[in-house]
Write a structure and sequence with these properties.
The protein is of the alpha+beta class. The protein has one domain (2-125): RutC-like (60s Ribosomal Protein L30, Chain: A). The protein has helices spanning 46-63, 81-95; strands at 2-5, 20-23, 26-33, 71-78, 102-107, 118-125. It has a six-stranded mixed β-sheet, with helices on one face. Strand 2 (20-23) and strand 3 form a beta hairpin. The two termini are 15 Å apart. The relative contact order is 0.24.
């Protein structure tokens, strides 16, 4: 069975993207950026966007009855690895705990919006 997970408001609905899908005992959270509930990029720099992206992942997981402690795999996409790697490590420390989930960190040339600097996706165990 496949179940769509969405918050209210669902900031991805206009783009025909599910915020998350529960399937096969897992919750697959779509990439979350540093945007507020209305889809606007949060002000500030990389850390502010990263914190908001993690809070968005938390919010979607909560809607599915899970939390960051249930995450087994995370993907972090950044626009400038050289400038932001230390802050990525700081974000991991702030939002994740041991045993840390498996992680893929990639530098990408662009994200869906030109002002986005980070996007985070996650896979969590469904409770």
């Amino acid at each position: 069975m496949i179940e769509r997970i969405a918050t209210s408001p669902d900031w991805y609905e206009p783009y025909r993207i599910s915020q998350a899908i529960r399937a096969g005992g897992f919750i697959h959270v779509s990439g979350q950026a540093g945007i507020d509930e209305n889809g606007r990029t949060v002000p500030g720099g990389f850390l502010e966007q990263g914190r908001q992206a993690f809070r968005n992942v938390q919010r979607v997981l909560a809607e599915a009855g899970a939390d960051l402690g249930d995450v087994v795999k995370i993907g972090i996409f950044v626009r400038d690895m050289a400038a932001d790697l230390d802050d990525v490590i700081r974000l991991r420390e702030e939002f994740l705990s041991e045993p840390y989930p498996a992680d893929t960190l990639l530098e990408v040339s662009s994200l869906a919006q030109p002002d986005w600097r980070i996007e985070i996706e996650a896979t969590a165990l469904a409770r």
